[in-house]
Design a protein that fits this description.
Layout: H1 8-18, H2 26-48, E1 57-62, H3 64-67, E2 79-84, H4 88-107, E3 125-127, H5 128-141, H6 144-154, E4 157-161, H7 164-179, H8 182-189, E5 215-217, H9 218-237, H10 244-252, H11 258-277, E6 290-292, H12 298-326
Parallel strand pairs: 2-3
Antiparallel strand pairs: 1-2, 1-4, 5-6
Helix pairs in contact: 1-2, 2-4, 5-6, 5-7, 8-12, 9-10, 9-11, 9-12, 10-11, 11-12
Domain Protein-PII uridylyltransferase N-terminal: 27-142
Organism: Cytobacillus firmus
Protein name: CBS domain-containing protein
Length: 327
């Protein structure tokens, strides 16, 4: 799987022609997205054509579904930059690079992040020393936004540049958690809401109005509950893998998790499969978060119902694990 293009527009055209090939393979689809994003970075670096000092090192990292290798067919942007040294000239260059990459990804078919979690934003484009201070400040502040930023950052995965920077930054989170276990409780409190999806009589609850009336919100009713719960356990145990399934596989190797993680792993794999199979080429980015129940067989609807119920059980398991640790 190779590509070599000199413009974002031709890259987008090739992406649109090729992507449907990966309809039944979530892993290959995410490798394809990685390939596109790496090409965007290459083109962006070529376009800047600024001589850099050999000592200027950097890492461009993706977050969100990209960081977790859980892209669907359509995905928006979530990314950042970390670099050395802490100099005005370097900061100006890498912020310009972040802006060019953001524009390039948009031109290649990845919508801008509505929350501005992009390397074009100085909050997500910093020297390694400033990143260290920022993560420390986020953990000390413990506000809803700074804890949310920690959740976002913990899914980061390097696509270009120095691999070691992100591990170095995540170690700050682990050290703070060991010193102040209540931070895990705070992370849990800010991310454990589950959108109600199963009614009192066992019926699946769909959207009651709007363009997705009669459809189930697969992102917030199913994906996000699993993603958030498993991420918290990953932070607790110092797991550095970024994908939800890889995190669960790592947790299964640890005492106290082996019995719980098996069914949750298969549940999440089923969700990834359904999202790909339900994709329609007319879908917008927002459309990809919903599933039409009529497209599922009776057995699939029952399986989905069980997955949603298990999501609540997983949350209860996480709550017990964190409260036990805090105690």
């Amino acid at each position: 799987m190779e590509s070599s293009f000199n413009s974002y527009q031709t890259l987008k055209k090739w992406k649109e022609e090729q992507i449907i090939k990966y309809r039944y393979d979530a892993s290959a689809l995410n490798e394809f997205h990685d390939l596109i994003m790496k090409d965007v970075i290459r083109i962006a670096l070529e376009r800047l054509k600024i001589e850099r000092s050999p000592s200027w090192k950097f890492a461009w990292f993706t977050m969100g579904s990209g960081g977790r290798k859980e892209h669907g067919f359509l995905s928006d942007q979530d990314h950042g930059l970390v670099f050395e040294p802490e100099e005005d000239e370097a900061e100006a260059y890498f912020l310009q690079l972040g802006e060019e990459i953001s524009k390039g990804l948009h031109a290649a078919g990845y919508p801008y992040c509505e929350g501005n979690v992009m390397s074009s934003n100085p909050l997500w484009c910093k020297s390694i020393s400033k990143w260290k201070r920022q993560i420390q400040a986020w953990m000390q502040e413990e506000s809803l936004q700074t804890i949310r930023n920690l959740h976002i950052f913990y899914d980061s995965r390097v696509l270009a540049g120095e691999e070691g920077y992100i591990g170095e930054l995540k170690s700050i989170i682990h050290m703070n958690i060991q010193k102040s276990p209540h931070l895990l409780t705070r992370m849990m409190e800010t991310s454990m809401h589950i959108k109600k999806s199963v009614g009192p009589f066992g019926q699946l609850l769909t959207e009651e109005k709007g363009s997705h009336q009669g459809e189930l919100d697969l992102k917030y009713a199913a994906f996000i509950p699993y993603v958030n719960a498993v991420r918290i356990l990953a932070v607790k145990e110092g797991v550095l893998e970024t994908s939800t399934i890889a995190r669960m596989s790592k947790l299964k190797e640890m005492d106290g998790y082996d019995e719980e993680m098996g069914k949750y792993t298969s549940n999440f794999a089923a969700l990834l499969k359904w999202r790909l199979q339900s994709y329609r080429q007319t879908d917008t980015y927002d459309d990809t978060h919903y599933i039409q129940l009529k497209s599922l067989s009776k057995s699939e609807r029952n399986e989905l119902k069980n997955i949603l119920k298990d999501g609540k059980k997983l949350h209860q398991f996480v709550i017990r694990a964190i409260e036990k640790g805090a105690g």
